């Protein structure tokens, strides 16, 4: 099985960029910038944005990805559902592992914040919600054959979910930026592995799947 090395290199670059974000934001100047931006986003902006971001944020949960996969499977796209959910699960597992490694304190345990939702479990870096959602959307968008404009729109939704985590008081900006980078990288890696698996299958098997 031959995996697309260029795709894996892109995924590795994105993962390295996420680690770099963590390193920079953990320095004194980086932490200062991170906290200032957090304060601007987390500040009072009115009840409408509060409700919007509180309602949007759980689109990044692994439960939401499972529900979306179930819908895809019910509509006859079981293979897309399995691949997208597999990428999302991978992003969630990577995120949980990194949280245990880096142990960054949540904003609400370090600063005076507007905490608009319940306190999540786990530490702060990286943010799993944008990672899970963007990995799912990266795979599903490509596998469904969506046009570039539609995929860009879906990536924008992941960006809004990332923003919601800061707005609601549970993550720093660097947490969600790293989450987006990791999610995109894991999605690309998942597609590369899936493509390699397809190329390795006998022609008859691939023809049967198409039928």
Number of helices: 10
Number of domains: 1
Rg to the nearest angstrom? 18 Å
Mean pLDDT: 93
Can you walk me through this structure?
By secondary structure, the protein is mainly alpha-helical. The protein has helices at residues 5-26, 28-42, 47-56, 62-74, 78-102, 107-110, 128-143, 148-167, 173-200, 203-210. The chain has one domain (5-200). The protein is built from ten helices and no strands. Helix 1 packs antiparallel against helix 9 and helix 5 packs across helix 9.
Summarize the structure.
With 211 residues, the protein is an all-alpha fold.
Question: What topology does this entry show?
Answer:
Blueprint lengths: L4 H22 L1 H15 L4 H10 L5 H13 L3 H25 L4 H4 L17 H16 L4 H20 L5 H28 L2 H8 L1
Top keywords for this entry?
211 residues, mainly alpha, 10 helices, 76% helix, globular, disordered C terminus
């Amino acid at each position: 099985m031959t995996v697309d090395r260029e795709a894996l290199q892109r995924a590795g670059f994105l993962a390295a960029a996420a680690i770099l974000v963590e390193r920079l934001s953990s320095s004194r100047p980086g932490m200062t910038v991170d906290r200032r931006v957090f304060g601007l986003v987390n500040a009072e902006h009115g009840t409408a944005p509060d409700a919007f971001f509180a309602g949007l944020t759980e689109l990044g949960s692994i439960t939401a990805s499972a529900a979306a996969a179930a819908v895809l499977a019910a509509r006859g796209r079981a293979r897309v559902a399995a691949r997208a959910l597999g990428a999302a699960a991978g992003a969630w597992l990577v995120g949980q592992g990194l949280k245990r490694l880096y142990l960054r304190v949540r904003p609400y345990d370090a600063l005076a914040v507007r905490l608009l939702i319940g306190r999540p479990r786990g530490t702060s870096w990286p943010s799993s919600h944008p990672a899970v959602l963007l990995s799912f959307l990266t795979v599903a968008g490509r596998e469904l054959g969506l046009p570039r404009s539609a995929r860009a729109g879906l990536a924008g939704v992941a960006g809004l979910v990332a923003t919601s985590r800061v707005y609601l008081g549970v993550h720093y900006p660097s947490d969600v930026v790293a989450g987006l980078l990791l999610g995109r990288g894991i999605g690309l890696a998942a597609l590369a592995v899936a493509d390699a698996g397809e190329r390795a299958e006998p022609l008859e098997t691939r023809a049967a799947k198409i039928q």
